[in-house]
Amino acid sequence: MIRRPPRSTPLYSSAASDVYKRQGIDIGTYETKGVLVNVKGKVVAQSAKKHEMIVPQSGWAEHRPNEDWWGDFTFVSNELINKSGCNPKDIKAVSASTIGPCMLPVDKDGEPLMNAVLYGVDTRAYKEIDYLNNNIGEEKIFKFNGNALTSQQVGPKILWLKNNRPEIFNKTFKIVNGTAFINSKLTGNYTTDHFSAAFVSPFYDINKQDWSNELINDLIDLEQLPKLVWTDEVIGEVSAKASKETGLAEGTIVSSGTIDAAAEALSVGVTGSGDMMMMYGSTMFFISITDSILSDSRLWYAPWLFKGEHSLMGGLATSGTLTHWFKNNFAKDLQGDDIFIKLAKEAEQSPPGAKGIIFLPYFSGERTPIHDTHAKGSFFGLDLTHNRSDMYRSIFEGIAYGTKHVFDTFKELNYVPSKLYSVGGGTKNKIWSQTTSDIIGLNQILRKTTLGASYGDAFLAAHACGDLKKDDINNWNAVDYEIEAKTNDQDIYSKGYKNFRKLYESTKDLMKEMDN
Predict the structure, then answer these.
(1) 486-324-337 Cα angle (round to 5)
(2) CB distance 302 to 311 below 8 Å
(3) Would you call 50 helix, strand, or coil by DSSP?
């Protein structure tokens, strides 16, 4: 059920503008998006460019750094300038975000030595995870980093590089994530924010908030990692070379940037303790702000974007990716640009509970809270009465059950969000978003501007310049409406969730055997 606030006078008139603009660009799993705004948050121009996630083999997920990251960045940057018609010198600052923890080795010239290994959806380093856990100790790693060592962490992927691509490992000058790669292209400086660094276990000490080789000192030199900065810091200026490629003026301020999910959380007003973002994207991602370090091996901890603040997170390995998979394999008869809308309407014809189908969304293993690289996806309970609409509805319910599993883990730590802000393409899918609220039992708040991480990047660029305080995002982006959790189908969903949990527990050993 959607509840909208009373109509009010728009915060800014269409004429509201200022001379200087701020640019934000976000590189996601399947698309890069950019936005140009004025200091009041009014959108001046938007741009987007699609790319693919490369899956060379089961359990692997990659991007091409020069083509998918820097190539997209330069394309979007130039298009924003051309669309807006603004003088590049009037763009005061730029900030970028990219997909979560990635592992990319580059040489002394900053050139990629291979495709980038993506975040937790890439599970190739499962043997290295076991090795590090056994040799260092799981408890020791957790106390040091605040996180269990999983496919979401970069350290095991560095070890995988050494074990499986020694010729590349020996040429490696720096190991970077997506944001650090973009920053180096823009300024020549290798930097990453503390929020991103917390996912480079076992090399980040959460207590000292610094790189450390205390747990493992024979894998890489710490100088091979980017310099640590806070997200509101200026890290350099656009170089002459980058100016020619991006269209930005030489000397334009560059702020640190961060991981896409964090920028997206900021874009919808997640600024204080008790605020939580739920992002519907290629994966589901959850970020909550806490007053102090609150960590659990089933979830993720990281310092928040600003010094002295903390965050507790969770994330599913696949969500929106599953709708693409289903469309490509089971909806080839549908044509046009509105295939997802047609499928969603079909799903609405299936009753709550999808006529008994239980869907496990573990198509790339699973991240929180089970951290199981061997987990497999499945449709369970099919019979001859089921059709495509039932199967598609069960996907949304299965993702929502996985979401509830994460929220139940938060509850065990006595954390329940006081405000739940939702964002991402999935919020436009009524059956997905409403089913999620009904299953988790929480209302969702949606802001008027839902451009995502690129809008948060633009705000970070303005904040780094000293133009705005972090709470000013609430002036940029007002509340649009609220999705209210319904209780009509509580019995059906309670049973479905119970069976969802039992199905995984009953089959997880078999899943692991299938990988051996």
Answers:
(1) 95
(2) yes
(3) strand
DSSP 3-state assignment of 64?
coil
Q: Is 60 helix (H, G, I), strand (E, B) or coil?
A: coil
Q: Containing H/E element for 288?
A: strand 284-290
Give the dihedral of Cα atoms 156, 161, 166, 169; nearest 10 deg: -100
Q: What pLDDT score does 277 carry?
A: 97
Are 63 and 100 spatial neighbours (Cβ–Cβ below 8 Å)?
no
DSSP string, 209-234: TEE--SS--SS--GGGSPEEE-TTSE
Amino acid at 125: A
Rounded to 5°, the CA angle 154-261-359 comes to: 85
CB distance 238 to 249 below 8 Å: yes
In the structure, what pLDDT confidence band is assigned to residue 5 with cuts at 50, 70 and 90? low
Residue 397: both structure tokens together: 């319910």
Q: Write the secondary structure of 150-215 as one string of H (helix), E (strand) and C (coil).
A: CCCCCHHHHHHHHHHCHHHHCCCCEEECHHHHHHHHHHCCCEEEHHHHCCCCCCEECCCCEECCCC
d(CA 365, CA 150): 11
User: What token pair was written down for 287?
Assistant: 């970020």
Q: Which residues pair with 280 in a beta bridge?
A: 284, 424
* Cis preceding-peptide flag for 166 (omega within 30 of 0): no
Report the C-alpha gap between 148 and 155 in whole angstroms: 12
DSSP per-residue letters across 424-449: EGGGG-HHHHHHHHHHHT--EEEES-
- Model confidence at 506: pLDDT above 50: yes
**What is the average pLDDT across 159-181?**
98
What is the per-residue pLDDT across 325-337, written as a single tens digit (0 to 9) for each? Answer: 999 999 999 999 9
Distance CA 281, CA 267 (A): 15
